[in-house]
Structures are given as structure tokens and as C-alpha cells.
Amino acid sequence: MLPAQAPVIVEAVRTPSGRRRGALADVHPVDLLAQTLTALLARTGLDPATVDDVIIGCVSQVGEQSATPGRMAWLAAGLPPHVPATTIDRKCGSGQQAVHFAAQGVQAGAYDIAIAGGVESMSRVPMGSARMDADPFGPNVTGLVSQGIAAELVAEKWKLDRTALDEYSARSHHLAAAAPFDREIIPIGTVDRDETIRPNTTAEKLRTLKPAFQNPGHITAGNSSQISDGASALLLMSAAKCAELNLTPRARVHSTAVCGDDPRLMLTAPIPATHRILRRSGLPLDAIDHVEINEAFASVPLAWLAEFDIDPAKVNPRGGAIALGHPLGASGARLMTTMLHALEDNDLRYGLQVMCEAGGMANATIIERL
Fold first, then answer.
1. What gap in Å lies between CA 277 and CA 184, rounded to an integer?
2. Its pTM surpasses 0.85
3. Does 254 participate in catalysis according to the annotation?
4. Options 100, 173, 254, 326, the catalytic residue
5. How far is Cα 34 from Cα 79, in angstroms, rounded to an integer?
6. Do 188 and 16 contact (CB within 8 A), yes or no?
7. Active site residue 326
8. Active-site option among 58, 92, 242, 259
9. Catalytic-residue membership of 242
């Protein structure tokens, strides 16, 4: 029996992953998210007027993604104007943080029903559009590097060679190509499948790519996440409200955590975030059935795997951002959507999601399938 205020996930959907300047590039990010929200609500038959808040992650909040895209999308979808929305930015973890805030609002009694998600059209609003023009840090923060160089530093620290990175990246494409994504994807126009997956990719082909950030170096376009377009959204509510509406809860948000780490290495915070959420949840690592670690670069999940005694087959078993793309603000909700469906498809119980974020941060979430 769940506590009345336990935050449960009732539905989760995502768009197909669109390549940069690909099939979704002509879709305005507001329209991309509006179609996602409409599909989310249609799957449950929920009266949209009963939603308390809409929390949307978006990283490049400029141009077409300014003016609170969650609010604009809600209105563009013709949904009740009394329902508010807000936009948050925790870099790559923005969509996951949206889930955290929605779950925490439900648990606190501030919300009965909330929608969490994210959107990013990297074709239309290029990465870096919201970058600062001047160094704001002063003398207390020095030696910061780009994420690509940070990925090289992580590979160096954990002694990950080019072969390991490329083999992992080919694995991502092969697993994604074999994954049953149909239930979680909502079509956008005629686009109903991911266009980022390259099923014929091999480590040997990836080996021919030149280093992208430093030479000599190990990080290439092939073992990095793909720049892409997409949106995702989840419907959360209290267990009591779910029962009142005669809806079926699919999972509960069991535990959440956030953590910072070395801002120069930048991509390592999933490691301490995992330790923190395991302590907070009271669960041992061997209780976790499925792990999603955002594949910002292949060195990120491989470094995590080097630190934890877990079956590698549990980690990103349906591929990750190397194959499926990384639409920045949407990725956290996309990973959660994929993890929920995978837990259901395989009759598993606990899923752990961790994401590295710019500035040396990470979100961690454990969900329990019901």
C-alpha cells in the first residue's frame, strides 16, 4: 500500500530522436513539445484542467526556446490557460530535474498532478546560443575546460583507450537498433522512429574518425552523444489522486539526489551521485535491475562502470545518447521514459538513472515499477 502522497508515474512518452537538420528540424520547439503534451494527456484521458503545474527542462532558453517554452507549448496545444508552467535549466539533467521537482511537489502536498518533461531543438537553437560573453568566475574558479576536453581527461584518468570507447559506442547503436521503442514514441507528423541510430556501425568504422577535441586524443564524433532534436514528458500524481481517478500507477519515484563534483573533470558527478542516492534509498546496488547513464561521451558510463561492481548488461541496455541523441533539455525525461518501459517489458523492479551535467553536477533518480 503506497502512502497517499507517494509520487507515482502514470504515463511517459517521447518524440522520435531527430538528427541535427534532420526530420524534426522544421518543427518549432514549441510545436514539438505541444504535440508531446497532447499525446501524453490523450493516452490517459486525464482532464488537462486538473493539472497543477507543468515543469519543463530546456537548456538554450533563447530565440524560439525563450518565453517559457512549456507555457507556450501548453497554450499552443489549446489546453486550459489557467494551468501554469515553468522552465528550468540544470544543463543536461534539466528534464530529470523537472521530474524531481514534480515528484517533490507531489510528495510535499503542493501538487496533486504535475507534468514534467523537456524539449530541445538543437537544429533551430544551436548549442551555446545562451553562452555568456564574459568570464563571470574570477580568480576562485580557474582551469575550466570544454566538455570535450573533460571527456578526454576522464578517459585518461580511468585509462580508457580508443578501442574501449569505440567498442562501447558501437554497442550503443546495436542495442538501440534492437530495442522495442514503439510504446514510448509518439509520432511527430510522419516521423515515428528514431533517425539517429546507425545499426551497421562497427568499432572498426568508428576507429577511422579523427579526434574531435584534441590531437592526439580519444574522443570523436562517433563516441560522443549526437546533437539532436526531441521532447519528452511524464505525468506524475499522488498515489491518492491516482486511485481517485481510477488510473493505474506504473512506477513510483522512490528516491532522488543531486550532487556536484570536480568542475574541471565535469563529467564525473554521476559517481558520487550514485553513492549518495544508494545511501538515501537504503537499497544496495545489486537491487538495481536497470541503469541509465547518459552517454554524453563513452568515457562517462565506462568510468562509472569502473567504479561499481555491477553487471555491464544492466547499464544502458537499450543504447543511449551515442545512438539516440542528446537533445539537452529533453534527455533526462527521455531516459526516464525509456527506463520505465524497459522495466515493464522485462518484469523488473528498480531502475537507477544518473546524468552528468555541465559545471560538474549530476542528478540521480531511482524509480520502482509497480
1. 26
2. yes
3. no
4. 326
5. 9
6. yes
7. yes
8. 92
9. no
